User: Which sequence fits this backbone?
C-alpha cells in the first residue's frame, strides 16, 4: 500500500481527552476516531488490526470445533423477561420500543437469543453438543465509557456458546474453549494469564478470565509463587488459618473521638494499630441494609458479599441511610447495638478487645468482643486478598499484578436452560435440561490492550501478528527519480515475498517519516535514500528493539528474509 494512496491521518499531538496510552496512540496513529462517548470509528488501519485479531480468533474457534453464525444486535424484550434479566441487567441494557410499541434492547451479550434458537431446534441427545460462536458488535450503556476502545459502549466481541447433554460434555466444551483462548492470546503475541473469576451478571457455576498483563489494567490479579493459583482479586479466596481467640476483655466503654472518622484518624487519635480497629461498612443489598465488618487494615470485598447473600445488587449505603441507622455522621458506625444483620470477616475471630464506631457522633467504643457483644449473622470470607496473605491453595506467598480482561469463559450450568426450558430427550427418552457454557473475547479491547502492553515513548510497538502491515518502507528522497525507481523495485520485491508493505512514498521530510513509522508501530522498518543507494544498501530497523542494520541491495531478497526471520524470532523469545 502506498502511503500517498492511503488514509492514515496521523496526529503530532495527543488529543487532550485521551487518558491512557492506547487511546492516545490509537488516535495519533490514525487508527480510530471518536464519534461520541463510547462510540468509535475504525479508520482503515485500525480496521486492519481489528480484522487480524478476528481472524486469529476465528481460526482458533473453528479449530476447536465451534461453528460461526451471526445473530441480530437487536433483541426482543420477551426473551430477556423469560430469564429475568430484563429487570436485573440494569442500565447497561439499552432498551427501546419500535413503532408498534414492542420492546427491544441492543444486545450486550446473546445467551437469551442463542438459547431460544437451540431450544427450538434440538430435540434429542443425538444432536448434542451444539457449539456456536459469532463475532459481532455489542452495546452496553456503560456508566463510564473510557479509555477509548478499552471500555466502549459499542464494541466488537466474539461470543461463543455450548450446549451439552451432561456435565462431562459441558466440561469438555469448557476445556476446549480454555485451550483455544490460550492459543489465541499466544498467537497474538501477548503476555497473558488465565485467572479464576467472578461470574457477574452472566451468572453460572465457575469462570475464568484471560488477562493481558499491563500496569495500566483496571483489574488486579493475585497469583501464587509456589502453585498455579491465579485469581482476580474480586474473587480470590482468603483462607483464614488462625485460631479463634479465647481471651476475654473488659466491658465495652465509649470514648470521645472528636472529628476522627477515618481509620487513620481514629488509630492515630487512640494510638492503636489498624488491626485493632473494626471497620464497619453499611451496604444496601437488594433494598435491605446490612453491616459488614473487616479489620481496619483490610478492604471489604463487595463481590464476595453479593455472592454470599446471593444478591442481585450490592452498593454502599448512602450517607442519609448511614445517618438514619447509626444516628451519627458517616465514620462512626459500629456493630454494637446496630440492629441490622451483621456479617463479619473470618479474620476478626482471631482477636478480641477491638475498637469500633459507637453509633454516636464523635465517639468510638473500646473493648469490643464480637462474640460477646454482637449477634453476628454470619462469619465469612468478606475481604480482598493482600500480598501479605498466604495462597488459599498451598499457603505459598502471593503477589498482586495488574491486568486487562480480554476474555471471559463461563460454565453456566442450567441458569439459562432452566429459565428458558432448553431441554432434550436423553437416551432413556427422559426430558433433560441442556448444560450451557458461554465464552467471550473483547476483540476491540484486545487491540487496545496489545498497545497498553507494547509501546514506547515514540509510539506503538505492534506484535507482528497484530500489526496492520508487516513492514514499512521509507523512501527518503521521493522527489529523486533514481532513488524512487529503486524504492519501487524494493516495494515490488517485498510484495513478491508475501509481505504486506506500507510504502511511504510521500514527499515529506525524513523526520516526519521516521516519526510516523515509529508511531505506527510496524515491526520492520526499511529506509532507502540517496546516501544509502550510493552505498548499495538499505537501512533496516527492528521497531521493538530499535536495533539498526544494513541490507545489501545486491542480494536483498535473501538478506531481508533472514533479517525478517530474526525479528520474528526475537518476538517469540520475548514472550
Ligand atoms: P468488564 O468487567 O470489563 O466490564 P465484563 O465482565 O462485563 O467486562 P463480559 O461480559 O465477560 O465482560 O464480556 C466478555 C468480554 O468482552 C470481556 O472479557 C471484555 O474483553 C469485553 N468487554 C466487556 N465490556 C466491554 C466494553 N465496555 N468495551 C470493550 N470490551 C468489553
Ligand atoms: Mg467479565
Assistant:
Amino acid at each position: 500500500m502506498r502511503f500517498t494512496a492511503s488514509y492514515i491521518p496521523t496526529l503530532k499531538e495527543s488529543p487532550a481527552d485521551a487518558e491512557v496510552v492506547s487511546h492516545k496512540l490509537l488516535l495519533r496513529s490514525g487508527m480510530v476516531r471518536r464519534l461520541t462517548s463510547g462510540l468509535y470509528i475504525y479508520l482503515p488501519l485500525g480496521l486492519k488490526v481489528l480484522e487480524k485479531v478476528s481472524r486469529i480468533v476465528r481460526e482458533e474457534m473453528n479449530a476447536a470445533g465451534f461453528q460461526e453464525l451471526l445473530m441480530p444486535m437487536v433483541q426482543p424484550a420477551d426473551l430477556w423477561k423469560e430469564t429475568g434479566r430484563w429487570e436485573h441487567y440494569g442500565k447497561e441494557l439499552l432498551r427501546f420500543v419500535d413503532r408498534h410499541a414492542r420492546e427491544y434492547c441492543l444486545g450486550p451479550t446473546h445467551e437469551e437469543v442463542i438459547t431460544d434458537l437451540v431450544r427450538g431446534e434440538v430435540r434429542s441427545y443425538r444432536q448434542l453438543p451444539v457449539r456456536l460462536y459469532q463475532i459481532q458488535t455489542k452495546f452496553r450503556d456503560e456508566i463510564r465509557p473510557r479509555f477509548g476502545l478499552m471500555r466502549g459502549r459499542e464494541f466488537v466481541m466474539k461470543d461463543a456458546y455450548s450446549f451439552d447433554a451432561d456435565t462431562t460434555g459441558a466440561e469438555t466444551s469448557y476445556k476446549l474453549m480454555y485451550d483455544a483462548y490460550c492459543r489465541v492470546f499466544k498467537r497474538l503475541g501477548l503476555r497473558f494469564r488465565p485467572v479464576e473469576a467472578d461470574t457477574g451478571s452472566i451468572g453460572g457455576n465457575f469462570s475464568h478470565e484471560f488477562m493481558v498483563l499491563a500496569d495500566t489494567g483496571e483489574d488486579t490479579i493475585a497469583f501464587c509463587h509456589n502453585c498455579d493459583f491465579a485469581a482476580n482479586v474480586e474473587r480470590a479466596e482468603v483462607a483464614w488459618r488462625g485460631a479463634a481467640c479465647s481471651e476475654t476483655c473488659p466491658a465495652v466503654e465509649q470514648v470521645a473521638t472528636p472529628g476522627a472518622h477515618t481509620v487513620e484518624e481514629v488509630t492515630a487519635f487512640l494510638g492503636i494499630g489498624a488491626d485493632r480497629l473494626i471497620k464497619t461498612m453499611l451496604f444496601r443489598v437488594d433494598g435491605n441494609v446490612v453491616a459488614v465488618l473487616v479489620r481496619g487494615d483490610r478492604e471489604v470485598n463487595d463481590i464476595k458479599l453479593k455472592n454470599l447473600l446471593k444478591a442481585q445488587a450490592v452498593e454502599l449505603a448512602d450517607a442519609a441511610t448511614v445517618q438514619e441507622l447509626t444516628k451519627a455522621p458517616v465514620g462512626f458506625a459500629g456493630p454494637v447495638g446496630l440492629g441490622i444483620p451483621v456479617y463479619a470477616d473470618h479474620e476478626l475471630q482471631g482477636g478480641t478487645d477491638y475498637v469500633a464506631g459507637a453509633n454516636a457522633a464523635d465517639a468510638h467504643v473500646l473493648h469490643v468482643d464480637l462474640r460477646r457483644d454482637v449477634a453476628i449473622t454470619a462469619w465469612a470470607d468478606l475481604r480482598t486478598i493482600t500480598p501479605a496473605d498466604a495462597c488459599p491453595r498451598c499457603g505459598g506467598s502471593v503477589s498482586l499484578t495488574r491486568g486487562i480482561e480480554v476474555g471471559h469463559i463461563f460454565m453456566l450450568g442450567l441458569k439459562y436452560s432452566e429459565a428458558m426450558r432448553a431441554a432434550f430427550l436423553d437416551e432413556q427418552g427422559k426430558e433433560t435440561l441442556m448444560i450451557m457454557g458461554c465464552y467471550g473475547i473483547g476483540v476491540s479491547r484486545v487491540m487496545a490492550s496489545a498497545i497498553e502492553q507494547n509501546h514506547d515513548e515514540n509510539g506503538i510497538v505492534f506484535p507482528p501478528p497484530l500489526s496492520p502491515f508487516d513492514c514499512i518502507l521509507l523512501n527518503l528522497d521521493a522527489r529523486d527519480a533514481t532513488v524512487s525507481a529503486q524504492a519501487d523495485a524494493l516495494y515490488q520485491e517485498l510484495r513478491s515475498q508475501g509481505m504486506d508493505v506500507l510504502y511511504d512514498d510521500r514527499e515529506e521530510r525524513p523526520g516526519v517519516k521516521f516519526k510516523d513509522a515509529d508511531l505506527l508501530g510496524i515491526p520492520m522498518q526499511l529506509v532507502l535514500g540517496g546516501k544509502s543507494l550510493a552505498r548499495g544498501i538499505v537501512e533496516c530497523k527492528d521497531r521493538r528493539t530499535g536495533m539498526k542494520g544494513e541490507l545489501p541491495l545486491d542480494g536483498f531478497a535473501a538478506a531481508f528474509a533472514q533479517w525478517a526471520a530474526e525479528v520474528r524470532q526475537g518476538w517469540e523469545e520475548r514472550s
Q: What stands out?
A: Residues 200, 209, 405, 408 surround magnesium ion (ligand 2) (CB under 6 Å).
